[in-house]
Amino acid sequence: MNDDNNVEIEREESVKAGKWLKFRFWLKRFFTNPANIILVVFFVFLAFFIFYPLITLVYDTFAVSSVTETRYGVKMGELTGLWWYRMIASEYNTMYFWKPLGNSMLMSFLASIIAILYGGIVAFFITRTNMKGKSIISMIFVFPYIMPSWTLATFWKNFWQNPDIGSGTGGMVYNLTGLKVPEGMVYGLVPCAIVLGLHYAPFAYILIGGILRNMDANLEEAATILHASRFKIVRRITLPIVLPALMSTFLLVFSSSMSAYAVPQYLGSGRFYVLTTYMKSFLNQGYYGQGYIMGLVMILFGVAILVANQYVTGKRKSFTTVSGKSGQVSYINLGKAKWVVSVILIVLSIFFAVMPLITFALESCCVVAGDYSTLTLQYWISKTPTDAQNGLVGLFFEKQVWRAFGNSLLLSFLCAIIAGSSGVLIGYAVSRRRGTKLAKGVDSLAFLPYLLPSMALGGAFLTMTTIFGIGKSFFILVLVGAIKYLPMASRSGINAMLQLSGEIEEAAVIVGVPWWKRMVRIIFPIQKSTFISGYLLPFTSCMRELSLFVLLVAPSTTLMATLLDEWMLWWPQSANALNLLIIVTVLVINFAVNKLTGASIDKGVGG
Amino acid sequence: MKKVLTYLLAVVLGVACCFTFIGCGKDEDRDITPQINEGQNMTATELLEKAKTESGNFVAYGNTSRITTAMSNFIASDYGKALGLTSSNAMAQKQNDSAIYKLLENEKSTPGGSDNASMVLIQDSASLMLYRNSTNLLANYVPKDMKDKVDENNQLPLAHQFINKLFMYNVKDANNTLKFTNVWELTDTKYKNNIYFKNPNNEQVNKNFLIMLTKEDWSAKLEAAYKKLHNNAAAEDVGSAKAYKNYGYKWVAEFLKNCNFSINSDTTIAQDLSKDTNAGKMGLFVLSKLRDASVKGENLQVSAWDKKAGSDTEFETIEPFAGFMYSIYAQLCTYGPRPYTAMLFVNYLMTEEGFKPWKSLGGYSSNKDVPVYEGSITTPVYFKDTGKQIFTDNNKKQLVETGKNGDKKVYTYIENGELTDKTVTEGDKITVGDKQETLSLKGVTEEVTTVKDSPLSFWNQTLVVEDGNYINTAIADHVDDWINQQISQKS
Q1: Where do runs of H (alpha helix) occur along B233-288?
Q2: Residue A78 CA to chain centroid, in angstroms?
Q3: Residues facing residue B197 across a β-bridge
């Protein structure tokens, strides 16, 4: 009997030992694949830095986390369902929650449609037709995204307003033609959706155009040979190919519009409220529970779209458009219509891209806003305090501006490098391990930071600075910026890698080329244009980000955006000059990257 | 693989939860009351000696942007030089109130940390009162020399300065249709969308002003003003079980209906309202914006500075208030590293030199010895008999509008303060030297000062003042929710 027991024990132990050995071998094999290593590292890193602020956010919606909230008769630190009750079920729920939610969804949906239509159509014409003026349009089409969204909102208002509405001054259209457009054209849902759509149209342009540019013409030519109509080719071949980009664009634009604050704040005129306007109001007053409930709802919407995106792109076997076989691009011949199309697109692009810049430049030189008879360069070049009586000298001689400029440039550069490189790695790993749970997990996690409200993310990281004892250092700014803008870089990286067939690498794998060399010598050069947009987008966004950094900046790490936020309230002329400086800086960087690398945001689309 | 992932995620979530609750852990308590008690009996020189023994950065937060200028001036002063302060170890940062409190709460975890704030300038008496009563984040300090110079009511918490928001209107057409003497006139439908006021959801002091009007004493004053305007008749919709609980609620609701929230900054309100195209519109905003060169001051009239008809020296009294005021308070931060330096800074800010960044029209120190800025604004001059603005023509002769000929205005010349028989019509040609020129008018203005003893002085105006206790109670009773409903019903 004892012998039987011993044999049994021995057998169990040998089975366990066998399982453990098996696991070890599996682990060893697992980590020989660079894609797996990348996925595991990013999974752990992202899970912590996303779930930590998320858990803090959720906790604050059930807790009394500020003294201000104790006004409602609750005690500091205790758990309560009061905030959820006020938002969802109280007599104020329509005002604070349901109506703004409906407004947010409608505004975001319309903005997404406008962005995809406008950006997609322009991308199609540039990449697939023989229209003229491609280089000009490519260069300036991305300007509306580079500018802060409220600059477009300002321009829209200044263009359409009339003395019967709003601030009672006449806009360009009224001054030139006497035409008075209805108030709904200047303030409210429609102008907010249009401005956000225009602001985010470059997303569609970059993402959709990137795919269209690299699409092999053989895919369409085969259908042409079989006498398929142009409409059928677009519907059955082109659209399905660009579907991942369409979904990514919708995802990005809808999420961005849901969390947009500046445009509805500026064009809402105190009548049109969305979730973000009330959220900011609550957070500014210290009602974190109620503010974060709105933030959570925005996150939930984003997650729902993310799941939908994964479902749609997951059904497809492949979106490869760049393979080891030769590819060629053929253009649709527009005939004489190419001139008409070119003129229309150039005029539209210049109007929305250049006119706001000109307006800003002029406003930064006016003593009295809108009065061009008071032009002066003092807000730019005065060495003595300007007559705004704020102690500020001209921008070029104002020390705090150059300190902030240096901080912003360094921060944006570091965030772009970290986010962009991480995006490339994530793109590689997710595409190579596509379909696995780990890849799906990292793909989703990499996008989640975009859905977290910037203010909430900044607040969570503020707490982290205390726990880790790192204070409000530059490091924390870089960390939070890199995480926040990783989604843009990762979308870019994933889209680029999904187009690359595995056979591109196969020859190099067979001859034993190390992984890093394959990345640097083969993969990156092929999709250079799309990868570089993954660096430029975080850089652009970081240069003008405010809510994310406002709690984390120390006096020694003042940024251009925090300076601009302060000046906008008090000294609009100097603020306009500062804003112009930010925009021009980003444009110059874009131009420099173009000259040095031959690639840029606009170059990636065939300009 | 699925199991591995699940375990990995569980570990990460667990770690994240741990850090969340570590962040909620008990903070170290600190008390600087002994230092403050000592400091309140010290002169600036004595404080300086104590401050020299401190270490760490000197950081101040403020919701006024001028705090950065004030800090620069402090660094450059004898005190700053004696303490070895530079822009590297002494910094001021502008933040809104909520951000300031969040930062201070966070700094509790590192008492005396080098980057912690030691001093704040903060507004909104209601929130300040809450934090002072519920936490030990802030401590009050009254400089020894200020006990006799600052009104006792403004010593706890110590008010550094006062800011007033007044009714102002555009007088470009000089037709005086916006001159008013009773705030109930502003509820008339003719003002719909013509009163610029920063959205109370974005400006807590504006919200506090509206909440204060629902208090019984202000409601009683509004009742008296209502009856004065309506021949002693009471409002039918005020009372229990009626639309409005009291006259304060009624005025707030009807005033908000006429407000225009399309401009979100007092500076821009001042700029836009002063444009020629906005004649006949009104605003309620900070007086100090008039000093900005981008504001056409000659187009703006402060309602409280309107002269009584037929008088050159008497000013209108607006029933029952001309606007409202609020304070900016100076407080020490319990968890900052440099309490004595902070006390020295507060001392400095309360002096005339320290108040320099705010020394302009509309800036009032709580120290009565700091003179009110003897600056001036231009204000139109009106003809005493008709109340219309006086103009000068191409020959610099004075004339005033007296009628119309069809669509064109007719002006009559003035001599020795009396109307003459000579008239001229808009668009007419007049003789200038040996040439004929089209009539060109320029409004006559005068400089108005706001010195302390002037009838226009801040201290002589009836303004609504914040009561933190009442505001906190009112918010608990959902008064601000009710105000938000009135605002949202405008859409």
Answers
A1: 247-258, 266-273
A2: 36
A3: B284
Check CB contact under 8 Å for A47 and B115: no
Could you tell me how far CA A388 lies from the centroid of its own chain? Answer: 36
Residue B139's pLDDT band (cuts 50, 70, 90): very high
**Cβ(B273)–Cβ(B168) below 8 Å:** yes
Show Cβ contacts of residue B34 under 8 Å, excluding neighbours closer than 6 positions.
Answer: none
- Confidence at A177, pLDDT banded by 50, 70, 90: confident
User: Which of B155, B146, B90, B129 shows the shortest CA–CA distance to B342?
Assistant: B90
Torsion of CA B39, B65, A71, A259, to 10 degrees: -150
Q: Over the range B464-478, which residues count as b (16 or more CB within 10 Å of their CB) and which as e?
A: bbbbbebbbebbeeb
Enumerate the residues of chain A whose CB falls inside 8 A of the CB of residue B262.
165-167, 187, 269-270
Four-CA torsion A313, A441, A424, A410, nearest 10 degrees: 120
Q: What is the pLDDT of residue A325?
A: 47
- Alpha carbon distance B95, B108 (integer Å): 18
* Residue A22 in tokens: 């098996």
Tokens 């061009």, residue? A372
Question: With b meaning 16 or more CB within 10 Å and e meaning fewer, what string describes A244-253?
Answer: bbbbbbbbbb
- Surface-to-core class of residue B21, CB atoms within 10 Å of its CB (0-12 exposed, 13-18 middle, 19+ buried): exposed
B201 and A277 in contact by Cβ < 8 A? Answer: yes
Alpha-carbon distance A373 to nearest alpha carbon in chain B (angstroms): 12
Q: How far is it, in rounded angstroms, from Cα A379 to Cα A387? A: 9
- Confirm if A422 and A489 have CB atoms less than 8 A apart: yes
CATH code that applies to domain A29-60+396-607: 1.10.3720.10
pLDDT band at B375 (very low <50, low <70, confident <90, very high): low
Pairing of strands B195-197, B282-286: parallel
d(CA A229, CA B120): 71
Q: Which range, A71-75, A312-316, B105-109, B219-223, is most confident?
A: B219-223
List C-alpha distances in Å: A56 to A51, A278, B371. 8, 20, 50
- Over residues B228-273, the pLDDT tens digits come to 999 999 999 999 899 999 999 999 999 999 999 988 888 889 988 8
Q: Does the CB of A400 have a partner CB in chain B at under 8 Å?
A: yes
Q: How far apart are CA B206 and CA B265, in angstroms?
A: 12
Q: Does domain A89-316+329-375 have CATH number 1.10.3720.10?
A: yes
The Cβ-side half-sphere exposure at B294, using a 13 Å CA radius, reads 31
Residue B450 confidence class, pLDDT cut points 50, 70, 90: low
How far is it, in rounded angstroms, from Cα A461 to Cα A445?
Answer: 17
Q: Do residues A370 and B268 touch, judged by C-beta distance below 8 A?
A: no
User: In this structure, what DSSP letter does residue A235 have?
Assistant: I
In sequence order, what are the residues at sequence separation of 6 or more whose Cβ sits closer than 8 angstroms to the Cβ of residue B360? A389, B288, B291, B373, B375
Most A-contacting residue of B488, B489, B490 (CB-CB within 10 A), to test interface: B488
Tell whether the model's pLDDT for residue B285 goes beyond 90.
yes
Q: CATH 1.10.3720.10 region(s) of chain A?
A: 29-60+396-607, 89-316+329-375
To 5 degrees, how large is the angle CA A487–CA A493–CA A499?
Answer: 135
Kindly report the number of other CB atoms within 10 A of residue B6's CB atom.
11
Query: Which chain A residues are closer than 8 Å to B12 by Cβ?
Result: 44, 47-48, 51
Closest CA to A282 of A509, A72, A556, A468: A72
Chain B residue closest to A46 (CA)?
A: B12
What ipTM does the predicted assembly reach?
Answer: 0.80
